[in-house]
Amino acid sequence: MTIPFSVDLFLEVFERYNLAVWPMQVFLTLLGIAAVVLAVRKPGYSSRAVAIALAILWFWISVVYHILFFTAINKTAYGFGALFALQGVLFLVAGVLRQDLSFHYSTNIWGILGGALILYAMVIYPLLGHALGHAYPKAPTFGLPCPTAIFTFGLLLWTDRKVPRYVLVVPLLWSLIGFSAAVSLGMAEDFGLVVAGVSSTILILWRDRGNKELSWG
Question: Got the DSSP string for 33-57?
Fold first, then answer.
């Protein structure tokens, strides 16, 4: 994959974004934490609320990051913005209108891996990035594409009924696109993205076909 910009320009986009939207990063992080708490506690309205939270995150990335900031160095970001907006719509359709998404943490392989991905997206990812020299504000924060995609896969692993396959397509596609860019740009913290995308998709499809041999309880 040929990248039409340098790593320095890429990091400068993060810097402009982070300085311009502060303190929205705090709100987006709290939104992610709220989604996790709701999925663990599972009150009656929780699944719809989690789906709405995911939709907000994907819409935010579509409009604010991709279209308002990333297009300055990469016009392909208009297409990325459209993909992320589509995913936001799909979360609203599947999780709110149709109520086909049901989020609830369980102590099994899907729950454990999902929790690990959520922890990676919200805690390990920024720490690893800082250790690799990508310090704030020149660093992707929660609410930006790669950590949010990893977080999304974590929550999708916490579903307790079949996930509509159309919900998986854009996150999986982004995991492949993001990984390719990460290799070219040396963003090693994003290498976890393809692991999250491929492993989560396989495990969700395996589970949803009724193969319960992997369950831990």
Answer: HHHHHHHHH--TTHHHHHHHHHHHH
The two structure tokens encoding residue 185 = 């740009």
Q: Is the peptide bond before 137 cis (omega within 30 degrees of 0)?
A: yes
pTM of the model: 0.94
User: For 124-136, what is each residue's pLDDT tens digit?
Assistant: 999 999 998 889 9
What are the domain boundaries of the chain? Answer: 7-208
Q: What digits encode the pLDDT tens for the residues 32-89?
A: 999 999 999 887 889 999 999 999 999 999 999 999 999 999 999 999 999 999 999 9
Candidates 147, 151, 150, 156; CA nearest to 204 is 156
